[in-house]
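Pipeline run #58 for the internal structure catalog. This entry was flagged by the ingest filter as a single-chain record with no existing model, so it goes straight to prediction. Upstream metadata was stripped on purpose; only the residue string is passed forward. Reviewer on rotation: M.T. Logging verbosity set to normal.
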Amino acid sequence: MTLKTLIEKLSYEVVQGNENIEITELVFDSRKACENGVFVCISGAVVDGHTFVEEVVQKGITAVVVEKEVSAPEGVTIIRVDSTRLALACMSAAFFGYPAKELKTIGITGTKGKTTTSYMVKSILEKTGFKTGLIGTIETIIGDKHIPAVNTTPESYIVQKTFREMVEAGIECVVMEVSSQGLMLHRVGGFTFDYGIFTNLEPDHIGPNEHKDFDEYMHCKGMLFKQCKVGIVNIDDEHVEGVLEGHTCELESFGFSEKADLRASNVELLNQPGFLGVSYEISGKMNMKVAIDVPGNFSVYNSLAAISICRHFGVKDEAIIEALKGIRVKGRVELLSVSDHYTMMIDYAHNAMSLESLLTTLRQYNPKRLVCMFGCGGNRSKLRRFEMGEVSSKLADLTVITSDNPRNEEPQAIMDDILTGVKKADGEYVMIADRKEAIRYCMVNAKEGDVIVLAGKGHEDYQEIQGKKYHMDERELVAEIRQEEGI
């Protein structure tokens, strides 16, 4: 492949050399530099790829793509662009033969609901016979292959490589979570999504290493709707107009509003021994009643979003009803079959906002007691610990304070910070540092009609202590405790 072919979709300037050279590999990590490769210099938050030009040339790189001034030996081609991240995305798409053109691509963005909605879409489409791949926070799925995730939205080269693998595996559709960081850093550049979905927007991911303010966060979410053919949005969200500013796609909507193209109404909470769910009616572009094995109004929104997408694939009502009944997403309000006397679930809620949303939802089911077990990560903001402690103490009847990922801090110091927040409200509490023993306490002392939430770890299957990750899966811990206690 020639360099000229790789950069055909870019606006660029040849600063030195010739673009009509053969390229064998596209590289953005200096450690992977090779003979006759092209190296894209990414300006990262910690490392700047431009500083590695001399090193990669010595390893055989014959062309570099830059956004800053660099010097390279004569004979090395230098291509100058405005954004090397966008260049990497477009070049990756070309390098792998534009695989997105051979797939139906679905991108889901929003503060909450991306993970659950993506699994719902995959489940519904596969019930109808569409082989569907997934890229998200928990994992990438290609057929029977499950690859644990590093980022919600991988680097553009990985995205395009994954698309090509999916095409070769016979995948027809791919649903992926698209983070605001992924959009801002052009990780999904170089192609146009067939469908873009907006779930909701709340202040999050704002800080020195993420977004400078809420406006930037909202703008980045909105980039998806300048890069998709059909946009499907939650019309009830107060920020929907801001997200859609400058959109270039066709639009559809879902929600409770009468203006919604797909409208939910007559919501009923389903509360059975060891089980919580919700049912509702859909009207508008489809008319049907669905029930989901996941509690709360947010489940209505997530499933509505999924149905809004799948409608475009000619999915039958029966397939939707069947797929949603058995939906299970690891660590996202994941119900565990433990007892008919009480309900136990695992959820990823790991900040005050998500914990408040979860506990408020569960309160609507009028549990005998609402028990919330959680810890907080070490080497992170103390404010999060105070806030989560206070939220749990206000909304739960019993807070069980335990350890999460203490990292380089002492677990007791973290728990003491949580306790400071807990004491701002009047909920009962106990403190048990060992997470397995904290879970055991919840189970052994459970009362008829309790709802018990194991919060914070979600899909994670490890505990990080003093720089090391130790295997720890809450599902396994619950199974061990049941066996040990004869529950």
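catalog note: The radius of gyration is 24 Å.
catalog note: The chain has a mean pLDDT of 95.
status: ready for reviewer M.T.
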